[in-house]
Amino acid sequence: EEPARPRTAAPATEPAYRPVDRPRRLRATPALRRLVAETRVAPADLVLPMFVREAATEPVPIGSMPGVVQHTTDTLRRAAVEAAEAGVGGVMLFGVPATRDATGTCATDEDGVLNAGLRALVAEVGDAVVVMSDLCLDEFTDHGHCGVLDAAGRVDNDATLVRYQEMALAQAATGAHVLGLSGMMDGQVGAVREVLEGAGYTDTAILAYSAKYASAFYGPFREAVDSQLRGDRKTYQMDVANRREGLREATLDLAEGADVVMVKPALAYLDVLAEVAALSEVPVAAYQVSGEYAMVEAAAAQGWLDRRRTIEETVLSIRRAGADVVLTYWATELARWLR
Ligand code: PBG
Questions:
Q1: I need a surface site. Which of 17, 50, 100, 130 has the fewest CB within 10 A?
Q2: Residue nearest to atom 11 of ligand 1 (CA)
């Protein structure tokens, strides 16, 4: 029997073991690492979510999302121009109305805060970036749910589809290029596609929030849009436990005519993202949501994480998992770093 190998490293002149494969060769210099990087992030891959608040005279900071504000129409325009100048690929607009009601009337008012904001964005930056809308009722209803309620107080799927169709027509009329259907009602993509085609909006694209989970990571967003919700969204958003169901949702949305499918949140759902990317024939997006943003900002503010490295790593990881497009509140800043 041979003697046991010594546990201490052998002297460099006479190594105990010589590896045949040496992956470290390609990590030796920044130039080599750059050359062989399998995934890249470009400003054009990024979409900036933005909030516009009705009747605001000053931008209103969102406490749990330091650096993000509810814009006035003026500051919205300015921030969109800055995003465009940084090379960001798109902006996605959410509205914060002054008044809410049971059916979310403001959402379909052509002068409502979201539709007016979309029109302003299209006029200001519509040639330079893709203007996207959030198509959902939760910002506009007094009960805070993403749809209308039936007599028993449950979210009524098919009655909600009618409201989404009306919203889609109002948003398409603003000139928005992409409608982001985030409500998680069954049939929402088919219903909206049908009404858009019927009205001649054949070029208005649909980004489907296909696999949208009932996630704790949306916490800060509730503050961002002053949401009125009591309870939860678990009868329409997906159960965090389910991977296969996410694939089913994406498959249904593709069959109904989605132009882009999305997974949301991003970082805790990279497995779902990778599988959706493997099956999708259309571009795949992922949404790095408010809680993902808040988590990194909070740790960075404490000095516990290197802010820039962490932001770059999370977005790169989302791209690596299969996202073509990443929605992130850091879009403009990250785009500037990338240039
Ligand atoms: C619904 C919607 C939400 C988000 C985007 N669209 C909130 C929710 O579903 O509860 C969350 C985005 C984020 O947390 O950054 N209109």
A1: 17
A2: 218
Domain boundaries, the chain: 40-338
Crossing angle of helices 307-320 and 290-301, in 10° steps, is 150
Q: Which residues are catalytic?
A: 212, 264
Half-sphere exposure of 117 (CA within 13 A, CB side): 34
Q: Is the pLDDT of residue 3 over 70?
A: no
Closest to 16 measured CA to CA, from 4, 32, 30, 25: 4
Enter the CATH code of domain 40-338: 3.20.20.70
Is the Cβ atom of 132 under 6 angstroms away from ligand 1?
no
Measured in Å, residue 208 CA sits from the centre of ligand 1 at 13
Q: Predicted ipTM?
A: 0.95
pLDDT of 156 reads: 98
